[in-house]
């Protein structure tokens, strides 16, 4: 290379010197200020305009001072520390914001001998588009943070748990007492009995209320991802892991409450790890050997028959004993029929507010609801009422308006010609409602009996249409 371009290289060297001198002069002439410090970060040169801006009428009086004594916000010391330039930055000066560039100064051997700072404009006007973009991004970030925080706050308080019967009053007393303690809470009850509502309410009533409430549903996440979801993962901890790693629910819930829903579905290997966290108050992210302290109150919930899962070896007895400290059992709806009208009224009021019109239940409708077994509990009551209001515009609902919703398939069919699809659906509805009744309304057991995934069964139940 040197053979090919010897002349241009030597020339280049001279041009470089010239260019440097010219560049410095141009910056000096056009910039609002220039300051040079030595390796001690003491000012060795400052132009008059710049010194004046910081209250030094005579630049000579600023010489030899530590740069911060003259320019309080200066970052030249940082440039000396790192040896790296700060090419563009905003700096607050007494009466305005300056745009500044800071460069390290090195001798020909590359040794750091000082640093130079230019204040390029005294009007940040020219940067307005950049600044506007920055502040709009910052606003978006603030909104995102806020909505995340919102999502991690409790959605319900104890007032949202409707019910006045003795069992519910006792349950609320237990919940309040448990809220004040820090031990794990176990919520047991059939599907739709309000375990999630109660978990939120307990968090809201606890001293941790102003900290996050984070939920992890064991049944909703593939087994292979659960550990990383729970404890986090360091970068590249497993194939397909995020490059930056993953923050686990334990970290997100730090200081607050972690709601472990469907705990009966937790894989045994993970049960061991959860048990360790409960005992030692410590955990490690996947692929990391750094031990992190856990400050999290656990609320676990399940509708699965834990005793049977333990007997079958699917749930660890030792974990059960750890969780079973403050246990609250939620009664099924059929065991608290006294609250049925209260619940129905409150739901119909809410549905009215959402645009479905004001309705009431006739005594015959109440009688019918009281006879029903409610395998899906309060959730099912809500679904039935919602569908009744959508299908019927009478202000007062009679038993006959509800029967087809409660007992689909049992109504005599008036339309003689059913399609194959309709018949199959009617058959399936019958099959499922029989299975649910056989299992005393216990959906997970019914799902097992039918050989369906629980989520699939829920979806099918939610999709049931009245057979008219
Ligand atoms: N006591 C109650 N007062 C008011 N609404 C309730 C009550 N219990 C349950 N609900 C309502 O019923 C629905 C189901 O409640 P929730 O999700 O808490 O049940 P769950 O016990 O967690 O059920 P699953 O075991 O199926 O997860 C929700 O819409 C909830 O608002
Ligand atoms: Mg739930």
Automatic annotation (TrEMBL):
Keywords: ATP-binding, DNA-binding, Nucleotide-binding, Transcription, Transcription regulation
The UniProt record lists the keyword Transcription: yes
Source taxon at top rank: Bacteria
Keyword match Nucleotidyltransferase: no
Gene3D superfamilies xrefs: 1.10.8.60, Homeodomain-like, P-loop containing nucleotide triphosphate hydrolases, PAS domain
InterPro entries: AAA+_ATPase, AAA_lid_NorR, Homeodomain-like_sf, HTH_Fis, P-loop_NTPase, PAS, PAS-like_dom_sf, PAS_4
Chain segments annotated as coiled-coil in the UniProt record: none
CDD domains listed in its UniProt record: AAA, PAS
Ranges of residues in domain Sigma-54 factor interaction: 161-390
PANTHER family: TRANSCRIPTIONAL REGULATORY PROTEIN
Protein name: Sigma 54-interacting transcriptional regulator
